[in-house]
């Protein structure tokens, strides 16, 4: 009896060691995902500490485009004086390497932009575009909201935000899967600094082109400098609105490249030294294409 006690103790100790090993192995395999559990993401979804499900995927090759905006998108003064020339529009043009041409969606593209349009006109354009159920909507608007007879008449930032939000909401309600490309408002102060180098350009500006920025283009007194700075600041505010509102929509991409681009005199219309020339339109198309087709 005394001799069997040590053997029983040894067997008991061995069994305990085996149990510990099995429990440890099970714990390791479970943590490695070898066993199913109630924490399996494929069954219960992401944990509180995990990543949220990604939003809808961005299509880098949309097959149809509706373009919205103002005279820039209409190709104003790009072909002849004081005339729209939509065939060279950066978005849907056919006589320029436009966005539609690059995406090979030219057969299904529509230009609803209107010369002179301001942000208040965007909801109507958006409604018209929605009837086409486009895969992509391009928006370039805001220059005319800053280009007023005086700085006091520029569209207030809050109003600009409210209308843009409403327009985007309308599109999302009517065409839920439509993607939106929003170009930034061009740097009007940069355009002034380039166009003023041309004597003829300065004379044409006196006819009333963007007076809030271009009036008395040679004047460098304190009042003129302050006026141009107010316009420049307002453009920055508009761009911040476009970025903020667009950023809340998973199918909207804002592009600050237009505002940052250093347009040269060659890329400005030879009729008004303000709107993009054909070369300028092509540059806008290249910037949009890069942003839209990026992963």
What is the second-level CATH architecture? 3-Layer(aba) Sandwich
Number of helices: 12
Strand content: 5-15%
Helix amount: 40-55%
Total DSSP E strands: 5
String of helices and strands: HHEHEHEHHEHHHHEHH
Major sheet details: 5 strands, parallel
Question: What does the radius of gyration come to?
Answer: 30 Å
The CATH class turns out to be Alpha Beta
Q: Which structural class do the helices and strands define?
A: alpha/beta
Number of domains: 1
The name of the CATH superfamily reads SGNH hydrolase
Uncertain segments: 1-53
Overall pLDDT = 85
Q: Say what the CATH topology is.
A: Rossmann fold
- What separation lies between the terminal Cα atoms? 79 Å
Task: Please provide a written account of the structure.
The protein is globular, with a radius of gyration of 30 Å. It has a five-stranded parallel beta sheet with strand order 2-1-3-4-5, sandwiched between helices. The protein has a single domain, classed as SGNH hydrolase (Rossmann fold, 3-Layer(aba) Sandwich), CATH 3.40.50.1110. Mean pLDDT is 85; it is low at 1-53. With 295 residues, the protein is α/β, with parallel strands linked by helices. It is built from twelve helices and five strands.
């Amino acid at each position: 009896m005394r001799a069997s006690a040590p053997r029983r103790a040894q067997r008991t100790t061995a069994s305990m060691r085996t149990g510990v090993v099995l429990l440890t192995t099970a714990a390791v395999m479970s943590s490695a995902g070898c066993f199913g559990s109630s924490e399996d993401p494929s069954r219960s979804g992401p944990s509180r500490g995990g990543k949220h499900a990604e939003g809808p995927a961005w299509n880098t090759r949309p097959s149809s485009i509706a373009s919205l905006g103002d005279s820039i998108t209409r190709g104003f003064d790009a072909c002849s004086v004081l005339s729209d020339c939509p065939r060279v529009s950066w978005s849907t043009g056919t006589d320029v390497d436009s966005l539609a041409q690059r995406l090979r969606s030219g057969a299904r593209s529509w230009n609803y932009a209107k010369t002179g349009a301001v942000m208040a006109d965007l909801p109507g354009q958006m409604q018209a575009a929605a009837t086409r159920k486009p895969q992509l909507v391009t928006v370039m608007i805001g220059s005319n909201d800053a280009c007023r007879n005086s700085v006091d008449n520029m569209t207030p930032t809050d109003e600009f935000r409210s209308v843009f939000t409403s327009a985007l909401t309308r599109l999302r309600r009517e065409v839920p899967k439509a993607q939106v490309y929003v170009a930034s408002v061009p740097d009007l102060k940069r355009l002034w600094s380039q166009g003023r180098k041309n004597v003829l350009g300065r004379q044409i500006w006196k006819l009333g082109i963007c007076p809030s920025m271009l009036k008395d283009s040679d004047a460098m007194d304190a009042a003129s400098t302050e006026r141009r700075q107010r316009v420049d600041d307002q453009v920055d505010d508009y761009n911040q609105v476009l970025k903020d509102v667009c950023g809340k929509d998973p199918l909207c991409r804002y592009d600050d490249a237009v505002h940052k681009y250093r347009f040269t005199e060659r890329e400005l219309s030879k009729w008004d030294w303000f709107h993009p020339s054909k070369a300028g339109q092509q540059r806008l198309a290249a910037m949009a294409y890069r942003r839209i087709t990026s992963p």
